[in-house]
Amino acid sequence: MLNKEQVLKFALPIPPSTNGYLYPKRVGNYLRLAETAKSKKWKQKATFIIKEAIIEQEWYTAPRGMWLDVHVDYKKKKKGQDPNNYLKLLYDVMENC
Hints:
This protein is an alpha+beta fold.
C-alpha cells in the first residue's frame, strides 16, 4: 500500500508539445486522429524511465481511483515554451505505468 510520505523521483526529457501529439489521418471517407511518431517514441522512452524508477526506488503502483500529488519541475530549452502543453502526454504515460 502507498505511504503518504512516499515520493517517486525521476527525470524525463521534455515531451513533444500537445500541438504535435496528434495529427488528422484519413481512413476511407473519415478523418481520425493518429499519434505522431515523435510522441510514440517519447512515450516508449518515458515509460521505460518511469518503470525503472518504480523498481529502483521500490515504489508501489497506486491503485486506480487513488489521488496522487504530482510536482513537476521544468528545465526549458527555450524561453516562451508553454509548460501546460506538455502535461497531457506526461499524464498519459504516468497513468499507464
